[in-house]
Design a protein that fits this description.
By secondary structure, the protein is α/β, with parallel strands linked by helices. The chain has two domains: about 110 residues, 2-Layer Sandwich (Chitobiase, domain 2), CATH 3.30.379; about 350 residues, Alpha-Beta Barrel (TIM Barrel), CATH 3.20.20. It is built from 17 helices and 16 strands. An eight-stranded parallel barrel has the order 7-8-9-12-13-14-15-16, surrounded by six helices. Strands 1, 2, 3, 4, 5 and 6 form a six-stranded mixed beta sheet that branches. α12 links the parallel β14 and β15. The protein is elongated. The protein starts with 8 loop residues before the first helix and ends in a 9-residue tail after the last helix. Bound molecules: zinc ion.
Length: about 500
């Protein structure tokens, strides 16, 4: 990013004071996250006796705003409703209440601001552990405060299916709400629950993208409706959709119909990851299906499913989102040499470029962007918040802590453009953190894992500080202040280190 003519004054001063170990602190209300793209502090304060003046200006970028605070008043210019909303979010960080003046007081300054990326996401897996409406709403509140705007809601998996779908009552009958063999619940979301949360999110300019995972990760479908998954004598339930069974595909379409009815978002996530081919190889119906459709072998079944569902959603005016396999198959190990992607698999056949690809490793996500797909990056070594924070003391469990780690400082190294060619950069529309919950048991555990790491995510996706010149020490000063604020509001934010 080019350094703006009016540099991040607060950031510069904050860094200077921090670096010198000075006792003089920067005014805490100027320590913003995410940092505005341009800000100049003019000195003086405004005693807010009147409401801000607002004006809509088409020349301001989407979600953007300009904020001018002088001793005479506050003026907001904004592009759209989201821009006006974010101007007020910034104001809420800047102001403090004066008991003496009996009003809010704001520092005099000028801000010009708009996001670097339009998808600034937080993902939550409620199939491995169910948290419920109150927790989800609290996450949405905190997301809005840091200008995060997409909530990716993982609602189905092998362990549970937590969305009630009319006509298929068995799906939620077994929703335990916890892994590790616990039998509690069932816990799941009704249509009214979902509608309530969608409205709540919309008021905060957050889009909810539901994820219904097909054709793999269907263990709960196998338990609820065994006939929709491949059945191999002696091998038990497969957890893989029996694509050769027309009733199974009709079931999937009905689930997507219902998702489209409940969720207004253009994007509907269909999963598409980590699907074993072993069952399709042994299932007579699926082999017959592959032959009938002219597929080379069962390897082509998953690409067929992706293409079919993407076209089905496109006809309904929606856009399919899938994990990286839908575009690039599986093949290359990631930067840390992990071998989970070692078995080469085929990407989708003639998949239209109008799907959205979610990269959970840097290289495959970047490759999809270079191929022309729109991409949201959530590489595990930067964005998987179920990896340990490497804190000296930590009361919570993590997913394979001795092999996978993600301290706060590493999140701040996230670059959604890593590996993406200059001419393909516009294909990267954003990023998100993923909160998988195999070993996340309650709200306190979840909040500890999200914060403060999501501060770094919010800053990167909104401000996009130059990856070669990121100042962790300066950012840590701001993050420490915001950590204190969250704790005051009963958010269980972990230490920075
Ligand atoms: Zn089958």
């Amino acid at each position: 990013m080019k350094v703006p003519t009016t540099v991040f004054l607060h950031a510069f001063l904050g860094f200077a004071l921090y670096a010198q170990g000075a006792n003089v602190a920067m005014p805490k209300n100027l320590l913003l996250i995410p940092a505005p793209r341009e800000m100049s502090v003019n000195g003086g304060e405004y005693l807010a006796k009147e409401k801000p003046r607002t004006e809509r200006l088409a020349s301001i970028p989407p979600e953007g705003y300009e904020l001018s605070i002088t001793t005479n008043g506050i003026a907001i210019r904004h592009s759209d409703e989201a821009g006006a909303y974010y101007a007020n979010v910034t104001l809420s960080h800047l102001g403090y209440y004066s008991l003496k003046e009996k009003c809010k007081v704001y520092p005099c300054l000028e801000i010009k601001d708009s996001p670097a990326f339009r998808w600034r996401g937080v993902h939550l897996d409620e199939a491995r552990h169910f948290f419920g409406k109150a927790t989800v709403k609290k996450i949405l509140d905190m997301m809005a405060r840091y200008k995060l705007n997409v909530f990716h809601w993982h609602l189905t998996d092998d362990q549970a299916w937590v969305l009630d779908v009319p006509g298929f009552p068995n799906l939620v009958r077994h929703a335990n709400g916890a892994t590790m063999g616990e039998k509690i619940g069932p816990f799941y979301y009704t249509a009214n629950d979902v509608r309530e949360i969608v409205v709540y999110a919309k008021a905060r300019h957050i889009t909810i993208v539901p994820e219904l995972d097909f054709p793999g990760h269907c263990g709960m479908v196998a338990k609820a409706y065994p006939e929709f998954t491949c059945q191999i004598p002696g091998k038990g339930r497969s957890g893989v959709l029996c694509v050769g069974n027309p009733k199974a595909m009709r079931f999937v379409e009905k689930v997507l119909d219902w998702a489209c009815e409940l969720f207004p978002a253009e994007a509907i996530h269909i999963g598409g990851d980590e699907c074993s081919r072993a069952y399709w190889r042994k299932c007579p119906r699926c082999q017959e299906f592959a032959k009938r459709e002219g597929l080379t072998d069962v390897e082509d079944i998953q690409p067929w499913v992706t293409k079919h569902l993407a076209e089905y959603l496109a006809k309904k005016g929606r856009k399919a989102v899938g994990w990286e396999e839908i575009a690039v198959g599986r093949g290359k190990a990631d930067e840390n040499g992990e071998s989970e992607n070692k078995d080469a698999r085929k990407p989708s056949l003639n998949l239209q470029k109008n799907v959205l690809v979610m990269g959970y490793h840097i290289e495959p996500g970047a490759r999809a962007a270079n191929m022309g797909y729109k991409v949201v990056q959530t590489p595990n070594w930067r964005c998987y918040f179920d990896y340990t924070q490497q804190l000296p003391e930590d009361p919570f469990r993590y997913f394979i802590p001795d092999r996978r780690w993600l301290p706060f400082k590493n999140v701040y190294r996230f670059d959604p453009y890593e590996g993406v060619k200059q001419e393909a950069r516009s294909n990267v529309i954003g990023g998100q953190c993923c909160n998988w919950t195999e070993v996340t048991y309650n709200q306190y555990d979840l909040e500890w894992k999200i914060w403060p790491r999501a501060f770094a995510l919010a800053e990167i996706l909104w401000t996009y500080p130059d990856p070669d010149n990121r100042d962790l020490a300066e950012f840590s000063v701001r993050a420490e202040e915001h950590r204190r604020r969250l704790i005051r509001e009963h958010v269980n934010c972990a230490p920075l280190k």
